[in-house]
Amino acid sequence: MRARLASALKRSLLLSLAEAEFFRLRWSSRVLDETEAAIEEILSGKGFDDATARAERARASMEAALRRHGYRF
Fold first, then answer.
1. 58 and 26 in contact (C-beta within 8 Å)?
2. SS (H, E, C) 9-52
3. What is the pTM of this model?
4. Torsion over CA of 42, 48, 45 and 66, rounded to 10 degrees?
5. Distance CA 49, CA 11 (A)
6. Per-residue pLDDT tens for 16-30?
7. Which residues make Cβ contacts (< 8 Å) with residue 43, sequence separation at least 6?
8. With contact defined as beta carbons under 8 Å apart, do 40 and 51 qualify?
9. What backbone phi and psi angles, to 5 degrees, belong to 63?
10. Nearest 5°: CA angle at 73, between 57 and 63?
């Protein structure tokens, strides 16, 4: 099953809710791998030539945000 957190709106909403302590995120490298792959697939399907680079940047941003809030992988 693929991660379905690919849309920016969903990621933003979930990260905002976690930041407000509605729940604690339980991320793993596997979840981030699946999310990155889903983002790349979506962007490739929309014709973005730089889909891989964009997906990598999205993952890096998510990892940085999680680390800022004390999450460890």
1. no
2. HHHHHHHHHHHCCCCCCCCCHHHHHHHHHHHHHHHHHCCCCCHH
3. 0.69
4. -10
5. 23
6. 898 898 987 777 889
7. 51, 54, 55
8. yes
9. -60, -45
10. 20
